[in-house]
Records
---
Amino acid sequence: MTLRGFFVKVRRFFFEDIRLSEHDPYADIRPYRDDEVAPVLARLLKDPELTGAIAAFRFGGLARLLPFLLRPAVRWYLRRQLRGVETIHDLQLVIRGYMDTMIENTTAGLTVSGLEQLDPARAWLFVSNHRDIAMDPAFTNYALHVNGYDTVQIAIGDNLLTKPWVSDLMRLNKSFIVRRSAAGPRELLAASRHLSGYIRHALTEQHANVWIAQREGRAKDGIDRTEPAVIKMLSLSRDKASEDFGDHIASLGIVPVAISYEIDPCDALKARELAERARTGAYEKGEQEDVASIGVGIAGSKGRVHVSFGTPLDRRFDSAAAVAAEIDRQVLAGFRLHPSNLQAYEILEGRPAPASLHCEEGSVSAAAFRARMEAIPAEHRPYALAIYANAVRSQLALREAA
């Protein structure tokens, strides 16, 4: 190749990349589109790590003994399940079937409140408490879908995307990527601006519902609090010269969401981490620990589950802290207490919770809940109980503040 030919190729590469970026500036973080479904599914079906992971989840140790037999069987099954899937909607209808089965097998019922006050014709930004990596947005999505609303685009941290196939699966299910691994303040600010711009683009240009957690990472201690940094990130897409902060918040259509689980399938795992942090000041996650937590959260028993949709935030807010405080108020007010919360509170406090607190009907007996807690190592048990009891403490604090 001549020197001139080399420079022509380099120039074409960079300028074509610039044109693609201008046409699709969020290609690096956005969910996949319908025209990308077929090639991504074809890639996934050839991925031995994906078929191996599914085989291990479904067949346990047998998958290690007979990989030559089970992986092809998993691939055949996936092809059969995904036959005819050409769009994201098609894929989500397949997922709906799995959600129906999961709700039937791992919950004592799913209830929903508050949706009647939301206009299905406009896009909403759902800011949710965060107890479970996968199930929080999944239950929100399911509640919306069965009530005739569009499903959400889901914010997911890149720390969870440890494998290419995990990233592909998430982006096929309308997830967009939150870059948490940015190195340095400048890169973090650029990533936050990019994310903020995408969320506003999704809401205003695509008219798509969006789900984000109220904080980075799960509330492992059971204390639901909004990080003002999340609101500050959302405000980065505001044109400060022409748009008031309150008007910007109102334009996003922020709706607080409270998800309540009678039983947390990951309570023992969270308690172990909290105990280790308290003992040593740090906790080192295993390489696939988050992926394992996703599996436990999906397959584990949850008891009764409630999804409460709050009231859209208006323009009366003048700071990120004020917005965070209102989201907290609505999440705590919408959170449904279960007998497990009251029982844990009584064990830790040595006295029953006030009888005036509203409590849902439970599906797990007091004896079964106590046995669950006693199965957790004694040094971890107070942290497991606090996961449930802190919801009671938070509602009592809300009542005092009011």
---
Amino acid sequence: MIAPPFIFTALLLGVLTLALAVGCGENTATPSSAPQPVEPDSTVLPYNLDRPDAAFALPAELLEISGLAALDSTHLAAVQDEEGIIYILDRETALITAQGRFKGSGDYEGIEVVDGLAWMLRSDGTLYSTSTAVSHNMDATRHDMDLHANCDAEGLAFDAPANRLLIVCKEHPGRGLRGRRAIYAFDLATERRIEAAVYLIDRAGLDAPGQPFKPSALAIHPSSGYLYVLSSVRKVLVLLDPADSGHILEAHTLPEHLFPQPEGLAFFPDGTLFIANEGVNGPATLLRFDERLDE
């Protein structure tokens, strides 16, 4: 039986607060032999990733949540990596308010909403599009991107100025791109993939022993235009500047007690950030971070 969301919120925030307090007394420094993410003296990140403004335990159906997107001003859309189902979540309670099946079983890793269409990404690089008007059984259109083998596509984001979807490879970036992670693009006007990667992320300084940088989600901040890339293995959030060829602005290590397996990332137009964690020894979680414009 699933408890009401407000009880989940109170319980989860209590656990997170306790974990944070305990963590402050421990030596959690990364060994000196491990490469360090670029932690800037003056950050451009307008969020306190150590303290979510709200936290929710998600229903059992979303234990393996893998993709997240803002649907409208009050709802999120989500997918999980076993069933071709779109879940609609209330932004304030994280309750499932609707759901609809767009495809059968499969490894679905991303979702994005563009002009009344929901786009879903499968790990083999296949895209599906369908109406955001969720119903029991939905018609979906398949789009083959012909991505190279072993890319393991995981993140999906809408790049509005270029009218394209961005797809990040968790694994192999492509021929001749060793030591980097690649972001490819699907042009929405032509419905074709742009052949070459549009952004490349150098893993030097991001990888750690036994914890390689493996992107799991990405999204573009609504006002700054910076591209946020989330890694679930190497628990880090990287900010890229699209106006500067995807230059890494900064990277932030994520506290493990809050981010056991971060898999979903979404912004609302007001700048509110949501990050979803797959369930690890407990339910999946949804964390809300309010933008701090005065910091």
